[in-house]
Design goal:
Layout: H1 12-25, H2 43-53, H3 55-78, H4 87-101, H5 108-125, H6 134-150, H7 157-167, H8 173-198, H9 202-213, H10 224-244, H11 250-272, H12 277-298, H13 302-320
């Protein structure tokens, strides 16, 4: 059984994640393209230069980024034992969703940004029953600010961070100030860097302005399979929410509500704002992975969860490697 695979302890599950990354992304990460608009920290461009030197080294670097991102997701889900026993399943479902929607390869910046977003979520969750609220909020906002540098569309994550503070019941003027200071702090350091390295802070201001000007665009142009895949994942996730919403434990209910919000907003962003699709896809994958994994734990008829997980795994692997069979 697929779900039973993730109950075993040890390194087997981690090796399985590495295997899935390789299957889902190997063809996609052999060619790098420059992201548009240019991010403040151009991770895609850096890996593109690495690809010109040694293609296999660049593939290893990209797989390592995805592995780090998956591991950070697992760490977040380990806090308060959010998904006991099936955290690795959530990581696999996330990788499957991302592999379908990402093109060849402008996701390095998005993956780096998501790593810092995971750090932000971790610190946000730490505020539950914590006597120190301002410090975790500041750190969460600080990591969000860094994620924006890697992928500017992640600026919308500020909305998710604000929603999380409200859902966790810690919305006060002190936490709002802490959040604002945390968001601005990385850019202050970057301002000093541009001044020291280039003696011209206008370069950073131009980069920010350029990203703002290119932030909003038209609808995302899905191909037929991607549209069908997203529709299927969206429908089954909505179905799973009916079961997940019955969870009564306070911390679980708060986290569920946060992922509900992320799920809805990320789906809207992915479909309607083309330039923010990298952010939308990453957060859509994270939220659906969490909700479907939670559903697999709570559903009475396990075969339903087995079918959903199997369908997503097969569809993602087949589509990601379609050029092996169709030319």
């Amino acid at each position: 059984m697929i779900l039973d695979t993730f109950r075993h302890r040890g390194v087997k599950r981690f090796v399985f994640i590495l295997f899935c990354i390789t299957i889902l992304f190997w063809q996609k990460i052999t060619v790098f393209h420059e992201a548009n608009p240019l991010p403040i920290i151009p991770a895609d461009t850096i890996l593109g230069l690495l690809a010109q030197t040694n293609i296999y080294l660049s593939v290893f670097a990209e797989i390592s980024l995805l592995l780090i991102c998956s591991y950070c997701f697992i760490i977040v889900l380990s806090l308060y034992d959010i998904l006991p026993g099936r955290k690795y399943l959530a990581a696999i479902l996330f990788l499957c969703t991302v592999s379908v929607f990402t093109d060849a390869q402008t996701i390095a910046g998005s993956v780096c940004a998501l790593v810092f977003q995971m750090c932000a979520f971790y610190n946000l969750f730490r505020t539950y029953h914590s006597g120190q609220i301002k410090s975790p909020v500041f750190i969460a906002a600080f990591f969000t600010g860094i994620s924006i540098m890697f992928s500017f569309p992640f600026i919308i994550a500020i909305i998710n961070l604000t929603a999380g503070i409200w859902i966790f019941g810690i919305m006060t003027w002190r936490t709002i100030i802490s959040m604002i200071l945390g968001l601005l702090t990385p850019f202050v350091f970057l301002l000093y860097f541009f001044q020291l390295a280039h003696h011209d802070i206008n370069l950073m201001l131009y980069a920010v302005e350029n990203n703002f000007n290119n932030l909003f665009a038209g609808l995302f142009d899905f191909d037929n399979f991607s549209a069908a895949f997203m529709g299927f994942v969206f429908v089954v996730t909505l179905f799973s929410m009916l079961k997940v919403s019955k969870y009564t434990k306070t911390i679980q209910r708060m986290i569920n509500n946060l992922f509900y919000f992320i799920f809805v907003t990320s789906a809207v962003i992915t479909v309607f704002i083309q330039s923010m699709q990298s952010y939308g896809i990453m957060l859509f994958g994270i939220s659906t992975a969490y909700l479907l994994t939670r559903f697999s734990q709570l559903v009475k008829h396990k075969w339903i969860a087995e079918f959903i997980v199997f369908a997503i795994l097969i569809a993602a692997a087949a589509y990601s490697n379609r050029t092996l069979f169709f030319h």
